[in-house]
C-alpha cells in the first residue's frame, strides 16, 4: 500500500479531491489531503483533511489568523512558502510516497512551489487548467521532475472530462508510487556531471563517451537556464562528484539575460564542494534570444551584431568585447573560489560551433577579450590549457576528458561499474 | 495486460527505449515500439521495433526514400505528420492502450504532434528534456490531456537520473493504462459546454450552477486560446449538445492577437451541429497581453488605451470602437450560420468585470459600437436579449441559463442524472 498526498485548496476543490481520494482508496492505497486553501477555512462538507491549512502555516511559524489579514496575492505567496516547508517535512517523516495536486491558477502556483522542494525521483504530479497555451514550463517544474497534466476543461465539479483527467492523474501518481519512485542518492561510485548545448555537444558528447568507456557514470545537463541549476543541486547534494562544465552559457545569460537566463550562481557548488573540475567557456560568447518573447527581449543593437538563427524562433547573438570581458570577470571570480583540482580549457577556435573561423559568429577580437580577461583574473595556481580547436570538435572533448581522468586517477574513487 | 506504445527515434534513443521496454515488460505488460527516427535506419542493435519508420511513413503515403532526400527540418515535419496518421490508425485498431515517448527536441516535437491526434482520455505521456524553462506548453499539449514530464538531465544513456525519470514515466503510463483510460464519448445524456475567464466567471458560474441544479451535466472551458478550441472539438464529436458560449474573448484574440490567440473558427462547430446556443460577448472588448512576451506583443498604442493589470504579467487592454466593430462583424457572420436555436444575450453594463460603469475598462461608446454592429449584422430571426447587467453578475448567468433551459425543455433530451 502506498500513501498519496493530495495538495489542494479545500475551500474550493473539495468535490474533485473527494473524487480523487475515492479512486485512490478503491485501488487499495492511502490518501493524505494537505489543505492549502487560503480563505481561512475549508468548504462545508469538505470531507477528511489529514493536514489542515493551519498546520501547513504552522510549519512556517505562521497562523491562519496572520494569513487571513493579508490580501489575496500575499496569502497565496505565504501559503506557497509554508506548503514547501510543510511538504518537505512530511516527506522527511515518510508521511507519503507520492504527491498529487489538482486545480486552477492558485492551486498550481502553490503546489508547484511546494513540490519543487522535493528531491528528483519522488513522484509528483500537477493536474492543472493552466498547463497549456502560452504558459511557460519554468514556473511549474523549476529544475525538477514535476509531471504536469493539462486538465482540458475547468476543474470544477465532476463531469465526463474531469472524471477522465482525474482518473488518469490518479492512475499516473499511483503507478509512479508503485513502479517508479527511485531516489537519486550519493553513492560510492563517482558520477560526472557535464553541461552541454547543441552548439557545444560535439565536444561534450565525445568527452562523456570517453569517460563512459573508462567506466564512469556521466550525466549531461542542458545549459538552458535549467540544466545548470539542476547540476549545481546535484553537486551540493554530493550526487555528482566531478564536473565537466564545458558550457558556461548560463553565466552570460545570468549577466545579460535572454532565453537561457535562470541558472544563477553557476560554478559555486563545485567550488564549495571541492570536487575536480574541468571548465571550458562553451557558448559564453552568445546570448540566446527567442522571438517568442518579442524582439524587445533581444539586445537593443542586436541587428548590428553578428547573429544566427539557431532554429525557427531562437537566435544566437554575439556578445561585444566589453560584455564578454564582464562575463570573464564573473567566471574568474568564481573559479578562484575552487578548492579542488581545476583545469580551465580554452578552445581557441571558438566557444560555440558557429564561432569557428569562417563561421558566422567568429570574431577573434571578441574571443580574445574573453581569454585575456579570464587569464588575468584567474589565480596563477589554476591550471590553464589552450587548445587550437573549436569547442564542438570531438578532439576538444577528448582533451577535456583526459584532463578530468588525470584528476580522478590521482584520487581514490569507485567506478560506476562497481555499483548496481 | 496492457499494451504501451513507445514513440521514439530508434536511430538515437534505442538504449533508453530498451530500458523502458524492459521495465514495462517486467511489470507484465506489452510494448509496441513505433520508430520515428528520421535518419533512414535504426541504430545497430536497436532491439525490437514493432512498427518501422518506413511503415509510419507509409501510413501517410510516403517512403523512407522520399524522407531521406529531405533536409532535416522537413524530415521532422514530415515524420511528425505521418506519425499522427499512423498513431491514430494504430489506436483505431486497438493496437495499444497508452502511449509514451521520450527524447529531446526532435522526438518531443514529433511525439506531441502524433499524440495530439488521439482523443482526450487515452493515456499519453511525453518525457522530455525540453519541458522546462521558457518553453511554452502549447506546442506540447495543444488542446489535449498530454502529460508532460521534465527529464531534468539529457536523455542519453542510462545513469541514475535517467533511470529515475524513465522509471517514473513508465510507472505513470502503466498506471494510467491500468487505472485511468476513460474515454469521453457522446451519450444520451445532454452535456452543456460553457466558456469562461476570470473576468466573466461570476456570471458563468451562476449559469452552470443553475443548470447543474436542474440536473444537467456542464463542462466549463477557459477561453484562453485553448479551452474554446477544446469545446469546439467536443461539439464536433457530439459530446457537447448545448452551448453556453458566454466568453467570446478568443474571437477578439483571433482577429487582433495577444495572449489568448490560438482558438480560431470559434462558434462554427455549434453552428454546424445545430445545437442550442446561448451566446454573450464575454471579454470581447479586451485583448490579453503578457509582459512575458515583451511589450511589442501589446497593441502599439496601448498606453493611450484603457487597460488594467490583471495579474503580475497579464494586462487587459481595451479594444477601440473600430476594432470591436470588426470583431462584431466576425461574430455576426458566424452566428448567422447557426442552424439550431440561438439567443444572443447582451450585458449592457459591460462585457467583462472591469468593464462595468465606474470601473477602469468601462467605455460606453466602445461597447455600443459592438452592440450596434452585431445587431445590424445578425439575421433578424436570431433572438436578441439585452440585459441591464454586467456579464460577471450572477443575475446575468441566471438569465443565460434560463434561456438555454427554455431551448432544452422544448426538445427531448436526457438529463445527466439518467446516465452513469
TrEMBL record, chains A, B:
Pfam families: UPF0261 (PF06792), UPF0261_C (PF23189)
Residue ranges of domain UPF0261 in the record: 2-179, 191-406
Signal peptide bounds: none
Protein name as catalogued: Uncharacterized protein, UPF0261 family
Organism: Propionivibrio dicarboxylicus
Amino acid at each position: 500500500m502506498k500513501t498519496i498526498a493530495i495538495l489542494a485548496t479545500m475551500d474550493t476543490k473539495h468535490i474533485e479531491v473527494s473524487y480523487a481520494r475515492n479512486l485512490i482508496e478503491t485501488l487499495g492505497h492511502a490518501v493524505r489531503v494537505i489543505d492549502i486553501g487560503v480563505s481561512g477555512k475549508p468548504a462545508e462538507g469538505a470531507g477528511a483533511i489529514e493536514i489542515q491549512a493551519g498546520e501547513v502555516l504552522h510549519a512556517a511559524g505562521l497562523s491562519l489568523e496572520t494569513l487571513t489579514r493579508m490580501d489575496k496575492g500575499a496569502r497565496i505567496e505565504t501559503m506557497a512558502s509554508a506548503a514547501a516547508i510543510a511538504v518537505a517535512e512530511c516527506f522527511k517523516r515518510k508521511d507519503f510516497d507520492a504527491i498529487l495536486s489538482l486545480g486552477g491558477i492558485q492551486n498550481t502556483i502553490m503546489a508547484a512551489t511546494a513540490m519543487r522542494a522535493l528531491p528528483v525521483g519522488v513522484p509528483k504530479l500537477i493536474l492543472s487548467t493552466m498547463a497549456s497555451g502560452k504558459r511557460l514550463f519554468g514556473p511549474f517544474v523549476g529544475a525538477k521532475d514535476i509531471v504536469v497534466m493539462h486538465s482540458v476543461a475547468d476543474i470544477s465539479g465532476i463531469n465526463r472530462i474531469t472524471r477522465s483527467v482525474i482518473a488518469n492523474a490518479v492512475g499516473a501518481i499511483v503507478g509512479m508510487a508503485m513502479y517508479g519512485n527511485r531516489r537519486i542518492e550519493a553513492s560510492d561510485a563517482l558520477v560526472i556531471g557535464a553541461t552541454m548545448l547543441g552548439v557545444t555537444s560535439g565536444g561534450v558528447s565525445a568527452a562523456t563517451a570517453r569517460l563512459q568507456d573508462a567506466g564512469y557514470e556521466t550525466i549531461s545537463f542542458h545549459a538552458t537556464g535549467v540544466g545548470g541549476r539542476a547540476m549545481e543541486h546535484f553537486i551540493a547534494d554530493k550526487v555528482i562528484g566531478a564536473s565537466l562544465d564545458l558550457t558556461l552559457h548560463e553565466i552570460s545569460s545570468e549577466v545579460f539575460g535572454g532565453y537561457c537566463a535562470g541558472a544563477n550562481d553557476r560554478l559555486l557548488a563545485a567550488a564549495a564542494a571541492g570536487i575536480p573540475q574541468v571548465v571550458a567557456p562553451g557558448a559564453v560568447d552568445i546570448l540566446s534570444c527567442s522571438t517568442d518573447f518579442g524582439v524587445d527581449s533581444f539586445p537593443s543593437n542586436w541587428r548590428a551584431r553578428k547573429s544566427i538563427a539557431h532554429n525557427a524562433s531562437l537566435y544566437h547573438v554575439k556578445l561585444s568585447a566589453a560584455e564578454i570581458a564582464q562575463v570573464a570577470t564573473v567566471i574568474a571570480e568564481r573559479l578562484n573560489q575552487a578548492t579542488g583540482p581545476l583545469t580551465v580549457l580554452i578552445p581557441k577556435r571558438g566557444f560555440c560551433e558557429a564561432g569557428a573561423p569562417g563561421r558566422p559568429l567568429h570574431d577573434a577580437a571578441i574571443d580574445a577579450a574573453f581569454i585575456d580577461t579570464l587569464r588575468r583574473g584567474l589565480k596563477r595556481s589554476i591550471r590553464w590549457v589552450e587548445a587550437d580547436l573549436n569547442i564542438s570538435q570531438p578532439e576538444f572533448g577528448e582533451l577535456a576528458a583526459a584532463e578530468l581522468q588525470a584528476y580522478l586517477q590521482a584520487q581514490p574513487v569507485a567506478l560506476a561499474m562497481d555499483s548496481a
